[in-house]
Automatic annotation (TrEMBL):
GO terms for molecular function: ATP binding; ATP hydrolysis activity. This is ATPase. One of its GO terms (cellular component) is cytoplasm. Keywords: ATP-binding, Nucleotide-binding. Pfam families: AFG1_ATPase.
């Protein structure tokens, strides 16, 4: 297998400018707009959230100019919105629509993990400087399971808010909590502490519009089928699962997106359960980047069966693993369509 046909043969070097340029809504939300959001009439909170987000976008269209001598204090009234709700109620759609409306040159959009990786790659102060000139910073899938990262993000948002940057964030509840009225706002506001009073919480009720139930495990396809499909698919890659997991240890997570540049599909043979939590978390990040790019994935070995063990699924990173399984299953269905 040549380097061009294998992820393990790639060691991308990503300049800071590209990391920043990559802070845009994911591909599947390229066309997201306020006009294309369809509120459920049975849940008025969806229409209310749409109206409020539209107002925020209008307020950011022509931000008030401040005299340089007034300093930061004149800019502390920037909008800060937290979209609170379960899976599939349109939070990410509204967040992406807001970013599109403000414009790529004025808005940064990324997941919680992408921002923490950006700080890891650039350093805290350079990240603040790079984002402070934006009118809006959007944080999708704000995560509360790592105290250190939560404190880091709280500090980053505080700095950006002090510079007058508007903020918008989302997060999800766990699947079994849907419909129980237990949302994440209280946890979010508690964890961001000093920032809590700045955030306006918009609760969005309703069922998952995709009617998605529990994540369904996918059996792997035969490894020789994975290799045959990759050989017949231009720009597809094929790697042995354990070799890819080992390779990810040598690549900074901020470069996982670049690892997939020019790739049309990803094949993995001999897929097996992941025992090490650090490896599992790196795999979660890779799945997120695969999902952002909507890349078909062919899974050999055991597929997603037992990929993350019961202990992991009961632990503090449970939500990440459930999200990864859901996304990987969706990508595996796309990959199955390549099998002839």
């Amino acid at each position: 297998m040549t380097a061009a046909r294998s992820l393990t043969g790639r060691r991308p070097q990503v300049p800071a400018e590209r990391l920043l340029a990559g802070l845009v809504p994911p591909r599947q939300f390229d066309d997201a707009s306020f006009a294309s959001y369809r509120p459920d009439p049975d849940h008025p909170s969806q229409a209310a959230a749409l109206d409020r987000m539209t107002e925020v976008a209008a307020s950011l269209a022509r931000p008030a100019r401040r005299p340089w001598w007034r300093g930061r204090s004149a800019r502390q009234d920037a909008a800060a919105i937290y979209l609170d709700g379960g899976f599939g109620v349109g939070k990410t759609h509204l967040l992406a629509a807001l970013a599109h409306d403000v414009g790529a040159e004025h808005a940064a959009y990324g997941t919680f993990v992408e921002y923490t990786h950006l700080v890891g790659a650039l350093g805290f102060a350079p990240t603040v400087r790079a984002l402070a000139h934006r009118r809006l910073v959007c944080i999708d899938e704000f995560e509360l399971d790592d105290p250190g990262d939560t404190v880091l993000m709280s500090r980053l948002l505080r700095e950006l808010g002090d510079h007058g940057v508007a903020l918008a964030a989302t997060s999800n509840t766990l699947p079994e909590q849907l419909g129980e009225g237990r949302f994440a706002a209280d946890d979010f506001l508690r964890e961001i502490q000093a920032l809590a009073e700045r955030f306006e919480v918009l609760r969005i009720d309703g069922p998952d519009y995709r009617h998605r139930g529990a994540t369904t495990a996918h059996d792997g396809v035969p490894d020789d089928v994975v290799r045959a499909v990759v050989d017949a698919t231009p720009d597809a890659t094929c790697d042995t699962f354990d070799e890819l997991v080992a390779h990810l240890r040598t690549v900074h997570p901020s470069r996982f997106g670049a690892l997939l540049d020019g790739v049309a599909a990803v094949g993995l043979t001999a897929v097996a359960p992941v025992d090490d939590q650090a490896d599992a978390l790196r795999l979660v990040v890779l799945v997120d980047r695969l999902y952002d790019r909507d890349l078909p994935v062919l899974l050999g070995g055991s597929g997603t069966q037992g990929l993350f063990g019961d202990q992991m699924l009961r632990g503090g990173y449970r939500k990440k693993y459930l999200r990864a399984l859901s996304r990987l299953s969706a990508l595996a269905e796309r990959g199955a369509a390549l099998v002839r």
